[in-house]
């Protein structure tokens, strides 16, 4: 390469780098891979520490996003969004219409959504809190609000997220919904009483996984996740990534 060509190449490289910085693009050093998973840690995500613990245990790299990050469109940097358990009403209020719009767009464009308990309530057409406000509408289900805390048995169907697991699994439950399928959602697991525990669906180009129980357990309550429930969450992430 001549000196003149080298100079032109260097100028072009500096220009591209500068443009990337100006428009807010992330520039990753060689060999560094950005997180494919993001975890909602904003208002309403009171049980997020339990999910953080499990992702660390699984060795899954993740980034944290709050309501402002979502409203700014930052979800486009990731493949999967996880919304953990917590206070559903607070999450609805903090995300608002703009946040819901950006999550819907993210999933429709090919992103994955994993909703656990509060995240499950948010995903339906209507959110089961006073006033039944508009939900994300990314899965055609109805959530019946329920109460209770403890370990419950679930029975797994054959499905990509149940691969490698026995039919019966014991899992932590904490006020999750009873799920009714209204459209083309698929049952992955149900409780002993017959109500649905885990369902999946497609929305646009993306995939949705809804957990009524908590595969992450509850470290804050001294309830460690079981290997089977860890596998459920890991399989769900792979499913949402298209693996």
SSE blueprint:
Elements: H1 3-22, E1 37-40, H2 48-58, E2 62-65, H3 67-71, E3 80-83, H4 88-108, E4 112-116, H5 118-123, E5 141-144, E6 149-156, E7 168-174, E8 178-181, E9 186-191, E10 196-203, E11 206-211, H6 227-241
Parallel strand pairs: 1-2, 1-3, 3-4, 4-11
Antiparallel strand pairs: 5-8, 6-7, 6-9, 9-10, 10-11
Structure write-up:
This protein has 243 residues and is an alpha/beta fold. The chain has 2 domains: 1-32, no CATH class; 35-241, Rossmann fold (3-Layer(aba) Sandwich), CATH 3.40.50.880. The chain has 6 helices and 11 strands. The protein has helices at 3-22, 48-58, 67-71, 88-108, 118-123, 227-241; strands spanning 37-40, 62-65, 80-83, 112-116, 141-144, 149-156, 168-174, 178-181, 186-191, 196-203, 206-211. Strands 2-1-3-4-11-10-9-6-7 form a 9-stranded mixed beta sheet. It has a two-stranded antiparallel sheet with strand order 5-8. Strand 9 and strand 10 (196-203) form a beta hairpin. Residues 5-33 have low confidence and may be disordered.
């Amino acid at each position: 390469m001549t000196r003149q060509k080298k100079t032109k190449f260097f100028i072009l490289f500096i220009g591209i780098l500068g443009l990337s910085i100006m428009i807010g693009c992330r520039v990753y050093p060689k060999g560094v891979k950005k997180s494919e998973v993001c975890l909602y840690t904003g208002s309403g995500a009171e049980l997020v520490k339990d999910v953080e613990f499990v992702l660390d245990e699984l060795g899954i790299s993740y980034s944290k996003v709050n309501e402002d990050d979502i409203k700014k469109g930052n979800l486009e940097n990731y493949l999967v969004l996880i919304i953990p358990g917590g206070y559903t009403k607070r999450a609805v209020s903090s995300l608002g219409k703009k946040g819901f719009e950006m999550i819907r767009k993210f999933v429709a464009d090919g992103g994955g959504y994993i909703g656990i308990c509060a995240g499950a309530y948010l995903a339906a057409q209507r959110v089961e809190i006073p006033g039944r406000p508009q939900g994300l509408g990314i899965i055609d289900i109805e959530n019946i609000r329920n109460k209770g805390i403890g370990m419950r048995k679930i029975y797994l169907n054959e499905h990509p997220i149940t691969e490698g697991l026995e039919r019966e699994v014991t899992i932590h439950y904490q006020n999750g919904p009873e799920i009714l399928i209204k459209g083309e959602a698929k049952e992955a697991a149900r409780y002993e009483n017959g109500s649905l525990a885990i369902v999946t669906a497609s929305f646009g180009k993306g995939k949705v996984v809804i957990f009524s129980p908590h595969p992450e357990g509850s470290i804050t309550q001294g309830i460690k996740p079981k290997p089977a429930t860890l596998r459920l969450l890991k399989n769900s992430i792979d499913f949402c990534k298209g693996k």
